[in-house]
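ARCHIVE CARD
Drawer: 12
Card no.: 0347
Subject: one protein chain, sequence and derived structure
Cross-reference: see card 0346
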Amino acid sequence: MYSIGIDIGGTNTDMGLVREDGKIIARSNIPTNAYTELEPYVRDIMDSISELMKDNNVDAIEGIGIGAPNGNFYTGCVDNAPNLTIKGVLNFEQEMHKYMNVPVVLSNDANAAAYGEMIYGGAKGLRHFIMFTLGTGVGSGIVVDGKLVHGSTGGAGELGHNILIPNGRQCSCGRKGCLETYTSARGIVQTYRELKAEKGEPCPEKVDSKMIGDMANQGDPTALKTWEVVADQLGLAMANSVTFSAPEAIFLMGGPTKVGDPLLKPLQKAFDKYLLNIYEGSCHIRMSELKANEVAILGAAALIKMKQ
């Protein structure tokens, strides 16, 4: 059997036809930011899905999974996502059923990534784990007893918006000191700039987290210190997360995690330092086993399994 995975981003909407074993057979995309109304946007998505199925001789699919900002699993809606040009509460499930009578499952992109890891990646066989996604922001998905945690509102698991430092850095959510402001790609750059300023050293005008990673791997002391600071902050947040769901593993994914040892070695040290002793040895830090360019589509497609 096949399913459709859809990743809705602020710029593009990516779609994939996914086989039962997790292989993406074919892909297509449309520009999200070309639309200001839901109806024509969904119509063009469904046209693209029909073409993917026709071109690959697929007559039926199990369903359509959608990973989206502010995605609500319970309602099938995207609720007032700030980065979309289509505003308001968008009922994708209702709109898509006008074209195809198959299950439509929607959740936020970090939840989709976590579920994708369980169905197609390194969390196969695990019933308790947490996924942290590091990128422009910090997302997370929590799986307990083999089920994705949605909570009463459909918005559970926003660990990136746990306050790490009260009255700390301004976050896009309106509060201050969220984990995201320190361990996202932007937060890493800010830490690097602050460390350079403390040393009285000039900072490159254009710098990003990948550059800081490359410098760290070349032995640059300020870059290495940056990753040590970030690792300590993330390790604290991860150790705290263990106390409420006792996961078997915590998975990491996203661009900043690709730096390797400059982050991962001090991260393990920090995690061990902050972890409550009754959980010692029970939870392991692991990297996502899904390919970066496939995780969004595979994660969305995996959401269909929740309706089976």
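Annotation on reverse: The longest strand covers residues 12-19. The chain has a mean pLDDT of 96.
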